Amino acid sequence: MAYSEKLLDHFKNPRNVGTLDKGSKTVGTGLVGAPECGDVMRLQIEVDEASGKITDAKFKTFGCGSAIASSSLATEWLKGKSVDEALSIDNMEIVEELALPPVKIHCSVLAEDAIKSAIADYRKKNGEAVEAAASSEKA
Amino acid sequence: MIYLDNNATTPADPRVVDTMIPFFYENPGNAASRNHPYGWVAEEAVDYAREQIANLIHVDPKEIIFTSGATEADNLAIKGVFEMYSRKGNHIITCTTEHKAVLDACKKVEKMGGEVTYLDVKGDGLIDLDELKAAITDKTVLVSIMYANNETGLIQPMKEIGEICEEKGVLFMSDATQAVGKIDVNPKELGIHLMAFTSHKMYGPKGVGALFVNRKNPRVKVTAQMDGGGHERGMRSGTLNVPGIVGFGKAAEIAMKEMKQDAERLSKLRDKLEQTLLANLEECEVNGNPAHRMPHVSNISFKHVEGEGLMMTFNQNIALSSGSACTSASLEPSYVLVAMGVGDELAHSSLRFSLGRFTKEEDIDYAIEAVTKGVNHMRDLSPIWEMYKEGVDLSSVEWSEH
Ligand SMILES: Cc1ncc(COP(=O)(O)O)c(C=O)c1O
Ligand code: FES
Asked: Does B392 touch chain A (CB under 8 A)?
C-alpha cells in the first residue's frame, strides 16, 4: 500500500505531539481506542474562555501510521476553530486530505471520535462548573 | 532495501534461476509427453529434481508428490487422508498456531462431517504432549502439527509427537514449510508420514511445492483433491510445472550443501540483532521458547508501540512483518501470538525478523539502528508509553473499545 506524501509527512514530522494539563478547566481531553485493539488516541484541546476558540491542541497516538497522521492533522485543523466549528469536523475530510485507503478509514473515525470526546470533556468540565455556580447562587 | 522477511518468501537463488531458464526455451516439453524427445527431456529433468528433493529430506523419490505449493500440499494431506481413511475414523488433531492452510483445510473437514481437535499451545508456543495423548481416540486418523512456526520460528517436539502417533497407530502429518531447506529435516527418523513444504521458502521459485507421502510401513494413501490426467501417481493431476520443479530441485541441492553453514551464520546474526535490541530498548520481550527455535527467526514485542506504525518508520528501507495487521474494521493481532497467551496488546506490538541466505552483517547493524530509532520515535508519540512511565496501571484504565 503506497501512502500519500501528506500522510507520510504527518507521520514522520507529526505536529503538536504532547500533553496538556488534563486537570486544567480550560483543557478538554479525549482518550479513545484500546491497547488490545491496537490503537489508542489521546487528543487534547485548550480553549480560550473569552473567545471560545481553541488556542492549542496536542495529541499522542499508539497506532498505525494512518492513525498517527490522522490525529496530527486533526490537531492542526483544531487550532483557531471555535468549539462548535471543531465539532463539525468530519472523518471523511481527513480521509480526503490524507488520501487514506479504504482499510484505513477507521483510523480517521478514531480521530473524529477523539475530537468529539475532547470537546465533550471540555464541555462537561465547564458545563458542570456553570451549573454548580448557578445552583449555589439559588441556595 | 534490506530484506528481513524471509519467512514470507525467500528471493530465488541466482543458481536456481539459471537452471530453470532452459526449460522455458530449449526444453519447453510436457513431462507427460511420452512419445517425443521434448517430453523425455522434461520427464528426466523432473525425475532428477525429485531425487534432489528426496535427498534433502532423506526419503525415496517415489514418495514426493509435486504440488503448486505448501497450501496445496497441506490441503491434499488433510482432506486426502480424511477421505481415504473415512472407514477408520473421522477425527483429526491439529493445533491453534498452525498456518491458515492447515486450519482452513481442517475447517473444511469439519464441514464435511469430520471432527477436529485444536490443541492449545503453552506459553512457550509448544504443544503439551500429554494433551495430545489424551486427545487421540479410536476415531483419530491424523495428527497434523507443524514443524516450525512461520511467525515465531518455534520448532514443535516432532520426535515425541511421532512416537505418540506410532504408539497410538495414527498417521502423523507435518507442515514443514518453514523448516525444510533451513535445518536438517528427516521425516522417516521422526515418524512423520506426510509432510508439506514449498520451494519459495528455500530460495526456489514460487508456485511449486511438494507433499511427502510415506510408501512403506505404513503405506499411506491420500484421495486426490484435483481430478484430471492422473499425474503424480494419481494423487495430483495437472501438467507439472517443469521449470519450477527444476528450480525447486536445484534449491534443494544447494540447501543440502549450504544449510548448515547458513544456519550457523544466521543464528549469530539473529542473536546479535536480538541481544542488541534488548540492550538498547527497555520493555521488550522475545516471543516463544528460545531453546526451540529456527536459527534465523526472531519475534520481539516492543511494549506500548503498535507494530504497523513502527514498521512505517523504516519500511522504505527495511522489509519485515508485524504481528498487527490492518483489516477493514480494526487492527487484528496475530492469532499465533494470542494463542501463546502473549496478549492482544503485546501481539500488536510485535515484529518478526526473518533472516536469510542473502542477509549480511551490515544489514543487521542497519536494522538495529533503524528499529531502535523507530521504537523511540513511536514511544515519544505513544500515550500509553507516557502513562506507563507515569506509573499508571494500564489495566485499571477504562478504555473505550470500538
Ligand atoms: C507454515 C506455512 N505453511 C504453508 C504456507 C503456504 O505455502 P505456499 O505459499 O507454498 O502455498 C506457508 C507460507 O506462507 C507457511 O509459512
Ligand atoms: S488504526 Fe490504523 S490500521 Fe486501523
From this structure: no
Per-residue buried b or exposed e for B259-273, using 16+ beta carbons within 10 Å of the residue's own CB: beebbebbbebbeeb
Given a cut of 70, whether residue B328 has pLDDT beyond it is no
In this structure, the number of other CB atoms found within 10 A of the CB of residue B397 comes to 14
What is the C-alpha separation between B401 and A40, in angstroms, rounded? 9
B67 three-state secondary structure: strand
Ligand 1 atom nearest B149 alpha carbon? 1
- Give the residue, out of A10, A100, A104, A109, with the most ligand 2 atoms within 8 A of its beta carbon, to mutate for a pocket test: A104
Residue of A58, A62, A91 to mutate for B, most B C-beta atoms under 10 A: A62
Return the C-alpha cell found at B138.
479410536
Q: Strand B209-213 relative to strand B64-67: parallel, antiparallel, unpaired? A: antiparallel
What is the pTM (predicted TM-score) of this model? 0.93
Q: Tell whether B374 is within 8 A of chain A (Cβ).
A: no
CATH for B13-254, options being 3.40.50.11540, 3.40.640.10, 1.10.10.10, 3.30.200.20: 3.40.640.10
Indicate yes or no: CB of A33 within 8 angstroms of CB of B402: yes
The model's pLDDT over A52-89, given as tens digits with 9 standing for 90+, comes to: 999 999 999 999 999 999 999 999 999 999 999 999 99
Chain A residues whose CB is inside 8 A of the B313 CB are: 12
The topology under which CATH files domain B260-393 is Aspartate Aminotransferase, domain 1 (3.90.1150)
DSSP letter at B112? Answer: T
Domain ranges for chain B? 13-254, 260-393
Measured distance CA(B72)–CA(B11) in Å, rounded? 21
In this structure, are strands B318-319 and B2-3 parallel, antiparallel, or unpaired? parallel
Per-residue HEC secondary structure of A2-67 comes to: CCCHHHHHHHHCCCCECCCCCCCCCEEEEEEEEHHHCEEEEEEEEECCCCCEEEEEEEEEECCHHH
Ligand 1 near B178 CB (within 6 A): yes
Mapping DSSP to helix (H, G, I), strand (E, B) and coil, where does residue B332 land? strand
From B188's Cα to the closest Cα of chain A, the distance in A is 43
* Residue from B147, B156, B145, B135 nearest B89 by CA: B135
Residue A137 has what pLDDT? 42
**C-alpha distance from B157 to closest chain A C-alpha (Å):** 31
Nearest to B213 by CA among B237, B196, B230: B196
pLDDT attached to residue B398: 84
Contact across the interface for B402 and A42, Cβ inside 8 Å: no
d(CA B284, CA B297): 16
**Nearest-angstrom CA–CA distance, B345 and B152:** 17
- Is A126 exposed, middle or buried, given 0-12, 13-18 or 19+ CB atoms closer than 10 A? middle
Instruction: Give backbone dihedrals phi and psi of A116, rounded to 5 degrees, phi first.
Output: -60, -40
- A138 has a pLDDT exceeding 60: no
Expressed in angstroms and rounded, the spacing between residue B330 Cα and the centre of ligand 2 is 6
| Segment holding A108, helix H or strand E | helix A105-138
B282 Cα to the center of ligand 2, angstroms:
25
